[in-house]
Amino acid sequence: MSQQQVEQGNGVSWRMILGIVVLVAAVVLIAQNSQDAPVHIFWMNVTMPLWVLLAITFVLGGLTGWLLKARRVKRAG
Predict the structure, then answer these.
(1) Which of 2, 15, 18, 27 is buried deepest, with most CB atoms within 10 A?
(2) Are 47 and 39 spatial neighbours (Cβ–Cβ below 8 Å)?
């Protein structure tokens, strides 16, 4: 499979495979951590299930990556 085919969507790119592997690893990590955990952020102290904290962290990390990529594409274009 040539690089041109991958760019045109005719095949599975290494980024998609890596993304699926990371997603599966995150889901397994989240599913295996259900105990409560204390969270201290700024002036707030809360206790929440660890899986909720991990899910929030995963979503915020993905959102940050998406926003930075969009900014990079906008600067390049």
Answers:
(1) 27
(2) yes
Q: What local confidence, expressed as pLDDT, does residue 41 receive?
A: 87
* Strand 36-41, strand 44-49: pairing: antiparallel
- Helix axis angle, 14-31 relative to 50-76, nearest 10°? 160
Question: Per DSSP, which regions of the chain are E strands?
Answer: 36-41, 44-49
Distance separating alpha carbons of residues 37 and 21, to the nearest angstrom: 26
Torsion of CA 35, 36, 40, 43, to 10 degrees: 160
Q: If you search the block for the tokens 């790119």, which residue do you land on?
A: 13
- Amino acid type, 42: F
**Nearest-5° Cα angle at 38, 59 to 41:** 60
